[in-house]
Design brief:
Distance between the termini of chain A: 21 Å
Helix content of chain B: 25-40%
Distance between the termini of chain B: 68 Å
Structural class of chain A: mainly alpha
Radius of gyration of chain B: 28 Å
Low-confidence stretches of chain B: 294-305
Structural class of chain B: alpha+beta
Low-confidence stretches of chain A: none
Number of strands of chain A: 2
Number of helices of chain A: 10
Oligomer: heterodimer
Helix content of chain A: 55-70%
Mean pLDDT of chain A: 92
CATH architecture of the largest domain in chain B: 2-Layer Sandwich
Order of helices and strands of chain B: EEHEEHEEHEEHHEHEEHHHH
Largest sheet of chain B: 4 strands, mixed
Number of helices of chain B: 10
Number of domains of chain B: 2
Shape of chain A: elongated
Largest sheet of chain A: 2 strands, antiparallel
Strand content of chain B: 15-25%
Chain lengths: 216, 305
C-alpha cells in the first residue's frame, strides 16, 4: 500500500492484507506482550508467582519485564504510526458500533467499512494511550535506575495505575485474540499476509472497493 | 534465611495459610529507644555494622554529625542529628533511625515475592534476600523510608532487629552496645511499662509533652520511642501519622487481586461461551469460511507450479 509499485492485488488472485514487515513486527509485539502479561501477572498475584519459574526465576523475570516493556513500546508506536491512515474514525464506524451486538450475534448486515472495522479501530485507539500510561508508570517503578527519582507516594500510585492499565490492556488484547479466532481467515492473514477476494469483500467491503474499484 | 525456630505470623505474597502462633507461646518483643537518654555516641551504629558484617563506604563530611546522611544498604541504623527550634527554644535532637518493625508492615503488603518478607511471631519483620526479586515495592510501601536496594545484588536490606540473635535469646547488638541505657529490649509489654515510667520522670522534669511514639496507623511498632517533645515527632524526623495508606492497601488487597484474576478468566469464559452459542464468523458459501475456495479465485496452492 505504501509503495505504488507493489499492488496488494496479487497475481494469484489473493489480496495482500499485511506486508512482511508488518506481520513480523505484529508477532514480535505479540510475543513481548505475552511475556509482559505473564510476568506482570506473576508479580500482581501470588497465585501466579509460579510463572516466574518459566522465565528464569523471580529476580531475572523482574529484570526482564521493563526491558520487554521497552521493546514493546519501541515496536508498537512506529507500527501504530504506520497503520494510522487506515484507522481514522468515520461516521460508518459509529454506525458499526451501534450495530455491534447484532454483529456479534451474526444477525446484522455489515455496515460498509474500510481496511479495519470499528472494533479494530477501537482496539487501535485504546492501545495508544494505554501503552503510554503503562510506559510512564513503568518507568516510575523501574528499579534500580529510574524509580529512585520518584517519591514513594508517586510510586504507590504508579503501581496501582500500572496494574489497572495492564488489565485494561489484557481485556483489549483478549478481545483482539478472540475476534481473530472468531473471524475465520484473519489469523492466516496475519501469518501469511493474504486474504481471498471473497474474504475482503465480505468482511471489509469498503476496503475491497477501494482496492479493486468494484463492488463485486 | 528463614529461621525455622521462630514462628511466622505473616509471609509476603503467599497463598498458603499462615499459621498462628498457637503451638507455642511467643511474646512480642520490642526495642525501646528513650531519646531523652541518648548522648549520640553512635555505639549502636558501630555495633550494627560489626554484628551484621556491614562496611559502608567512607563518605563525606557534610557539616553535621550525621554520617552517612541517610540509611544505606550497608548502614541499617543511622544516628540523625537535627538542629531545630522546638517551642521557641533551640534544640539539638537525636534520632536513631532504622526499621520500626511495624505490626502492619507496608513493605510486606507491597512485596510480590513469596516469602521475601516475613513477620515472625515475635513481631520482627525480616527480609529474606534469597527470595527477593529486587522490585523495590517494599521501599515505596514503607511509611518510614527504611529499606534500601543494594546495587551490587539488586536485593533490599534493612535492620533485622538482630533476628538471628533474638532467636537464640540474645538482645540485638545495638542494645548490647548502648552505654546510657537509652536502648532497651524485652517483651513489648515490659517495654511499654518501662516507657510509661520514663514518661512520668520526663514530665516531672518539665517535658510536659513527652510521649511514646508507637504509631497506631501501622498498628504499633516493635521499635518505639520515648520522645521528650512528643507533640512534635516531625522535629525528630518521624512522620506524625504514618500509615500503610489507601492506595497501597487497595493495590495489594485480596479484592483487587480477585477482581484482576476474575477479569482475566471472564474474558476467556466470554469467548468460549460466545463461540459455542454463535460459532465462527465465516465468509458465506465457503467450505472453511476463510474465503479460500471461492469460485473464480483459485486457491494459492493451485497457482504454484
Amino acid at each position: 500500500m505504501t509503495s505504488p509499485a507493489k499492488s496488494p492485488l496479487l497475481p494469484d488472485g489473493r489480496i495482500l492484507r499485511h506486508g512482511h514487515t508488518e506481520r513480523v513486527v505484529h508477532w514480535a509485539i505479540a510475543i513481548a506482550f505475552m511475556f509482559l502479561f505473564l510476568s506482570g501477572l506473576a508479580m500482581f498475584s501470588p497465585m501466579f508467582f509460579w510463572l516466574s519459574a518459566v522465565f528464569g526465576g523471580g529476580q531475572f523475570m523482574r529484570f526482564l519485564h521493563p526491558i520487554a516493556g521497552m521493546v514493546l513500546v519501541v515496536l508498537f508506536y512506529p507500527y501504530a504510526w504506520r497503520l494510522r491512515a487506515d484507522n481514522h474514525w468515520t461516521a460508518v464506524d459509529s454506525n458499526w458500533v451501534e450495530n455491534m451486538t447484532a454483529y456479534m450475534r451474526k444477525e446484522a448486515h455489515l455496515p460498509d467499512t474500510g481496511k479495519y472495522n470499528a472494533g479494530q479501530k477501537l482496539m487501535y485507539w485504546s492501545m495508544i494511550p494505554v501503552i503510554a500510561v503503562l510506559l510512564v508508570t513503568g518507568i516510575a517503578l523501574w528499579q534500580p535506575w529510574f524509580a529512585p527519582a520518584f517519591s514513594a507516594g508517586t510510586r504507590r500510585v504508579a503501581g496501582l495505575v500500572h496494574a489497572v492499565m495492564a488489565f485494561v490492556m489484557f481485556i483489549g488484547i483478549g478481545v483482539h485474540w478472540y475476534a481473530a479466532y472468531w473471524t475465520k481467515g484473519s489469523i492466516r492473514s496475519m501469518v501469511r499476509g493474504t486474504v481471498s477476494r471473497a474474504w475482503a469483500k465480505f468482511h471489509h467491503p469498503g476496503w475491497y472497493r477501494h482496492l479493486t474499484g468494484k463492488d463485486s | 534465611m528463614a529461621l525455622e525456630t521462630q514462628d511466622i505470623r505473616a509471609r509476603s505474597a503467599s497463598t498458603t495459610f499462615t499459621p498462628p502462633d498457637a503451638r507455642s507461646f511467643q511474646p512480642e518483643v520490642a526495642k525501646l529507644i528513650d531519646i531523652s537518654r541518648c548522648i549520640g555516641c553512635k555505639a549502636c551504629q558501630a555495633a550494627c555494622m560489626e554484628w551484621n558484617n556491614l562496611r559502608d563506604a567512607v563518605g563525606t563530611f557534610d557539616g553535621v554529625y550525621t554520617n552517612p546522611l541517610q540509611l544505606t544498604d550497608q548502614s541499617w541504623t543511622v544516628m540523625k542529628f537535627a538542629e531545630t527550634e522546638v517551642g521557641g527554644q533551640f534544640q539539638w535532637l537525636i534520632l536513631k533511625d532504622g526499621c520500626l518493625h511495624c505490626s502492619d508492615p507496608g513493605c510486606l503488603r507491597a512485596c510480590p515475592a513469596p516469602g521475601a518478607i516475613l513477620q515472625y511471631a515475635s513481631g520482627i519483620v525480616d527480609f529474606q534476600q534469597d527470595h527477593c526479586i529486587g522490585c523495590g515495592y517494599c521501599i515505596s510501601g514503607c511509611p518510614f523510608d527504611i529499606p534500601r536496594l543494594r546495587k551490587e545484588d539488586s536485593k533490599v536490606y534493612k535492620c533485622t532487629l538482630c533476628s538471628d540473635r533474638v532467636a537464640v535469646g540474645l538482645e540485638p547488638a545495638c542494645i548490647k552496645s548502648c552505654p546510657t541505657q537509652a536502648l532497651s529490649f524485652g517483651t513489648k509489654q515490659s517495654m511499654l511499662d518501662q516507657a510509661a515510667h520514663r514518661l512520668e520522670d520526663l514530665r516531672d522534669r518539665g517535658f510536659s509533652k513527652a510521649a511514646i511514639y508507637d504509631p497506631p496507623g501501622v498498628k504499633g511498632t516493635h521499635v518505639f520511642f520515648v520522645l521528650p517533645h512528643g507533640d512534635q515527632p516531625e522535629a525528630y524526623g518521624l512522620p506524625r501519622d504514618p500509615e500503610v495508606g489507601p492506595i497501597l492497601a487497595l493495590w495489594r488487597s485480596g479484592l483487587a487481586r480477585a477482581l484482576g484474576v476474575a477479569t482475566m478468566f471472564g474474558v476467556l469464559v466470554a469467548g468460549i461461551l460466545h463461540y459455542m452459542r454463535h460459532g465462527p464468523l465465516e465468509v458465506p458459501g465457503e467450505e472453511d469460511g476463510r474465503g479460500d475456495g471461492g469460485a473464480g479465485h483459485p486457491p494459492e496452492r493451485r497457482s504454484q507450479p
